[in-house]
Amino acid sequence: MNVRPQKLLTEQEVQTGLRLVITEGLATEAMTTLTGGAFLVAMALLLGASNLQIGLLAAWPTFTNIFQLLSIWLVRRYNNRRAISVVCALLARLPLVIIGVMPFFTKGSIQFLIIFLFFYYLFASIAGLSWNAWMKDLVPGNQLGTYFSRRSSYMQILNVILSLSLAFIIDYVKDNYPAYELTTYSIMFTVAGVIGIMGAFVLSKVPEPQSYLARENIFQLFKRPLKDGNFRKLLLFNSAWVFALNIAIPFFTVYMLKHLGLSMTYVIGLTVVSQLCSIFTIRMWGRFSDRYSNKTILAIAAPVYIICIIAWCFVGIYSRFMVNLGLLVFIHIFTGIATAGINLSLTNIGLKLAPNEHAIVYLSTKNIITAVFSSVAPLIGGILADYFGNRSLVINAEWAGPTANKVLHLVSLHDMNFLFLIGAVLAFISLEFLLRVKEVGEVEKDVVVRIMRSSIKNNLKEYFLIGNLISWHDQLWGLFKKKSP
Q1: What is d(CA 41, CA 258) in angstroms, rounded to the nearest whole number?
Q2: Residue closest to 235 by CA, chosen among 346, 338, 73, 355
Q3: How far from chain centre, in Å, is Cα 108?
Q4: How large is the C-alpha radius of gyration of the chain?
Q5: Is pLDDT larger for residue 246 or for residue 400?
Q6: How would DSSP label each residue in 216-268?
Q7: Alpha-carbon gap, residue 328 to 268, rounded angstroms
Q8: Reported pTM
Q9: Read out DSSP for 85-145?
Q10: CDD domains attached here (predicted)?
Q11: 409-463-432 Cα angle (round to 5)
């Protein structure tokens, strides 16, 4: 297997590599779907995980990004991003097989799951940094948004199909053969590990253009992005944003499974609604990010996402199942639309602001710094969830008359609802840091909003609602500034 980089790549080699990257992405998505999201949370709850342990599982994927210093050292030592990505990907996926087969030989435990998932995320983070820098050189710069939006849409389609199938299987086993529920999750982990290993072999066939990393002291290298004022502003926004979101996001699934009592089919079905909305809109976000700027897309999508987090505070206020389900559907629709734009833009703006010769250093600095905030947040969220577990805040509007008495629940915060409100407030504050970031080709948000409305008004009328929602952040801050002395 030849994994050496090449000085020059032909157009045919580039196109072949791009197709293989999509194939590898599908294998990675299948592996991630089988072992992550609602399925991982459900398995952890089955093993008796506490809120803090749920927070720890949510923290691992980002906390391990701190070890991406190893990736930089390896790239500097061997100057072979493909070999590093492939070897570390293989090392990352072996723990999944171990997690899958161990319950057949010994009793499963949450501690065992937490430990081996740490090594999975550790090697995956090292491989991911090399992969990002490799892809920056492989994918033509003017196609970043279009290519990765297409790749993401294929991965999300697979996620939808696989998630729904697995949800039906798990609910069937849980209802008819409850003793085999943990066994089902074990099989899922084993299959995921095997598919992931196959995906690593596909990745080994993708060509790598030769790169050169400056032979500076590694700590001197890390000072370079921190001295870049504009990139430093991006780090500030990204850190504040992920901290705010990760206080709340890891507990959405826990809330639906434990407090609302929804089955896995409902939870995955709602996730699928969100995924479908991402699939239908991600190429639109990709086109607009290439045509205008990623910062503009963030300024549009992020406020929509914040409104969705606030809406979680109202889930469960009423006891009627259909009312709660309708609100959850609404939340997941707009979460999917906003997430597609946010994830795409955060990835691309980091790639865009990183100079080619120091891309891996810039990207690793971004990942390491945001990892600290992103990993601490769910731990704090778990502690807060326990603290607010026996506390509540209820605000009602009551009508009393001679013939009828009516009580309207306006706000009912309890347990994890407090986390959602705290996360939304912090996310709202973080948007102020985005305004300071400068991006080449940046277009005013209001201009892009008008163009987007005009572009999609004949096909997706619901985007008119998005167009009205995206200006709420500026309007609200305007009110605050008027009132401030």
Answers
A1: 11
A2: 346
A3: 28
A4: 23
A5: 246
A6: --HHHHHHHHHH-HHHHHHHHHHHHHHHHHHHHGGGHHHIIIIIS---HHHHH
A7: 12
A8: 0.75
A9: HHHHHHHHHHHHHHHHHGGGTS---HHHHHHHHHHHHHHHHHHHHHHHHHHHHHS-GGGHH
A10: MFS (cd06174)
A11: 75
Write b or e for each residue in 50-74: b if 16 or more Cβ atoms lie within 10 A of its Cβ, otherwise e. Answer: ebebbbbbbbbbbbbbbbbbbbbeb
User: Which residue ranges make up each domain of the chain?
Assistant: 11-207+218-387
- What's the pLDDT score for residue 297? 84
CA distance 249 to 74: 33
Which amino acid is it at 70? L
The yes or no reply on domain 11-207+218-387 and CATH 3.30.40.10 is no
pLDDT band at 193 (very low <50, low <70, confident <90, very high): very high
431-444 pLDDT tens trace: 888 888 887 644 45
Tally the C-alpha atoms within 13 A of residue 219's C-alpha that lie toward its C-beta: 0
CB distance 427 to 302 below 8 Å:
yes
Q: What is the mean pLDDT of residues 166-192?
A: 93
Please answer whether residues 304 and 470 qualify as being in contact, where contact means their C-beta atoms are separated by less than 8 angstroms: yes
pLDDT at 11 over 90: no
Two tokens, residue 325: 């389900």
Split at pLDDT 50, 70, 90, the class of 451 is very low
Q: Is-contact 315 260, C-beta < 8 A?
A: yes
